[in-house]
Write a structure and sequence with these properties.
This protein is mainly α and about 600 residues long. It is built from 22 helices and 4 strands. Keywords: Endoplasmic reticulum, Kinase, Membrane, Transferase, Transmembrane, Transmembrane helix.
């Protein structure tokens, strides 16, 4: 029993339940996919347990206070894709969408799995070759790594069988496998780069989720570009990839990928220019910084106005410049959309100014202060999602683009904004951020945006787009309290409301039931255990269910066809709430995706 308890701690147990819920919901046509996911989960679980025997992971400096998170990071994105496959399979059986969309999503599922599989192979090799592999604990890790490799071999065989049955375009099985191999190799290279460039900024699981997502996102846009080029150069119908994309989807994908690739290109351009300029001029350090900043902003503007829109136009037929298309879209309903923009600006200005002053002049822990921003996300995004969902899609993309540009400016301390942005942003950081990279605002925005973006197209579960807003804006905000050592603080402005709703919540310290300590937070220079209460988790689960009971009739009144089953909704809310209670990973990134997956079933 002790061995089983160490094998399945709270976080791992919840992840196993999460994967099991998805696998048992699969139709017979997706049996092979479910079996492959089970093998991937077994390999990741074995590796996650083996990592516990190591004091530190070989070659990587991970985020202090967090577990490795290998299991959660490895299964999250493939499980999300498989849940979406279940939803699309229902649409195909009803003949509401074409089979090509189902086949495209199948390729996406195997590509996401290949990214995670490649990283797992890398981790197995690192553990097996650790210098201290003669130590008894290291020998345990090596045995777990070998078991993971066995699961990987079986998984690869299943992948070959499944890809051979896809009738997508003119790709044969060998080319499909090569495409999957490229995804896995790219994920291995990217996660090594991320963990070495930004040490102590993420756990293995968090880096794995980011890596697999970025590789899948870039691979999809690259495949679209290659398919369009092949159609122009060869024949019109010889190469097809995926289904028809919306203009908003292409704009967001092109802009975000362009901004992510921009630092790599800019470094190369800067090295060439500096090589020429340093030969001709001898300038001071300040002049060099100003020159570097001017070159940066010029290159960024040129990329955003010329290069990236050209890429978008090549992939999608806009019939006008994409920036002009955006203005045309916004002003097609000027009253509603401009009024919404004004409302967002007012909420942001009031909230940021208020909480910036509080963070500077108050002793309230920042991780608790940031819960107010979760509430702000509800106030901003919930009305827009109900009444202007397409405009909200575009707004999320623009906001992420602004965040990316500001983070590049902050990291490189570019004149004149770099130091000001850094000083402003550090006022809102918590224990999950570092001076090198600030990620918590990205995770909150992406946590709300991803379920909405993934719900575009066919969606027969009306609550699915609200997964991020409900789980982060409602559930996480309503979590009753945390204990930082001896410091007892309330984590929500709605604490009294939650307490009145739950009769089981007592007012004395002795009646509060705490989960096991799940992470370490540095407060005032000391590391203290974070303990979350059972009552807090119950408050979060209850508040989400109460919000859903109000939201479903509202959606029905606006024309949505409500097909949500309360049993599956309760399971989804409970599992995601328990994951928030137990996980030491960045919950803003994982919980919305887990909630989304379970709502799709």
């Amino acid at each position: 029993m002790a061995a089983m308890a160490s094998l399945l701690n709270g976080e791992r147990a919840v992840v196993v339940v999460f994967v099991t819920c998805v696998v048992v919901s699969l139709p017979p046509s997706l049996f092979c996919h479910g079996l492959a996911l089970s093998l991937l989960a077994l390999a990741a679980l074995s590796l996650d347990v083996g990592a516990d025997y190591l004091n530190s992971f070989p070659l990587f400096q991970t985020r202090p206070g967090a577990s490795s998170g290998i299991l959660l990071g490895a299964v999250t994105l493939p499980t999300v894709m498989l849940s979406k496959l279940i939803q699309i399979e229902r649409a195909v059986s009803l003949k509401e969408i074409e089979i090509e969309e189902f086949e495209h999503l199948t390729m996406q599922y195997w590509a996401a799995s290949a990214c995670c599989l490649g990283v797992i192979v890398l981790l197995c090799v690192l553990i097996s070759n650790t210098p201290s592999n003669t130590h008894p604990l290291a020998l345990h890790s090596a045995r777990h790594a070998k078991f993971s490799l066995t699961c990987i071999v079986l998984y690869t065989a299943l992948c070959c069988v499944s890809l051979g049955t896809i009738s997508l375009t003119s790709f044969n099985t060998i080319l499909k496998l090569l495409w999957m191999f490229c995804h896995g190799l790219a994920a291995v290279k990217l996660i090594q780069h991320l963990l070495s460039t930004f040490p102590s900024c993420a756990s293995i699981g968090e880096a794995l989720l980011v890596t697999s997502g970025l590789v899948l996102y870039l691979g999809d846009m690259l495949a679209l570009t290659i398919a369009k080029a092949c159609r122009l150069l060869i024949t019109e119908n010889m190469v097809r990839y995926g289904s028809k994309r919306s203009e908003i989807g292409v704009i967001i994908q092109g802009m975000l990928l362009g901004l992510l690739l921009f630092p790599v290109v800019f470094r190369f351009v800067l090295q060439i220019l500096e090589w020429f300029l340093t030969k001709a001029f001898s300038q001071s350090r300040i002049d060099n910084e100003i020159r570097k900043s001017l070159i940066f902003f010029f290159c960024l503007g040129f990329s955003m106005i010329v290069i990236i829109p050209t890429w978008m136009e090549f992939v999608q037929d806009f019939h006008m410049h994409p920036l002009l298309w955006v203005f045309s879209f916004v002003f097609s309903e000027p009253l509603k959309r401009l009024s919404l923009c004004i409302y967002w600006v007012l909420v942001i200005c009031v909230s940021v100014v208020r909480f910036y002053n509080i963070s500077k002049n108050s002793k309230i822990e920042r991780i608790l202060l940031r819960k107010y921003y979760h509430l702000m996300a509800v106030l901003m995004f919930l009305p827009a999602l109900v009444f202007q969902p397409k405009f909200l899609d575009l707004a999320f993309g623009v906001a992420l683009g602004v965040f990316l540009a500001l983070e590049i400016v902050r990291v490189w301390r570019l004149w004149p904004l770099g130091r000001l942005v850094h000083q402003f942003m550090t006022a809102f950081t918590d224990h999950r951020d570092s001076d090198i990279l600030i990620v918590s605002h990205f995770s909150l925005l992406l946590g709300c945006a991803l379920p909405i973006w993934m719900s575009s197209g066919y969606n027969d579960r009306p609550l699915v787009p609200f997964a991020g807003i409900l789980s982060l804006g409602i559930g996480d905000t309503m979590m009753r309290r945390m204990l930082f050592g001896k410091h007892d603080v309330k984590s929500s402005v709605f604490f009294c409301i939650c307490e009145s709703l739950l009769a089981t919540v007592a007012c004395t310290e002795a009646t509060r039931h705490q989960w096991l300590a799940t992470s370490m937070v540095s407060l005032d220079g000391a590391s203290r255990a974070v303990k979350k209460t059972v009552e807090g988790t119950a408050a979060g689960i209850t508040s989400v269910l109460a919000t859903c009971s109000v939201l479903l009739p509202l959606l029905a009144s606006t024309g949505y066809i409500v097909t949500e089953h309360w049993f599956s909704l309760v399971v989804a809310v409970t599992v995601s709430g328990l994951l928030e209670a137990y996980t030491t990973q960045l919950d803003n990134a994982f919980i919305p995706l887990v909630f989304y997956s379970l709502l799709c079933l």
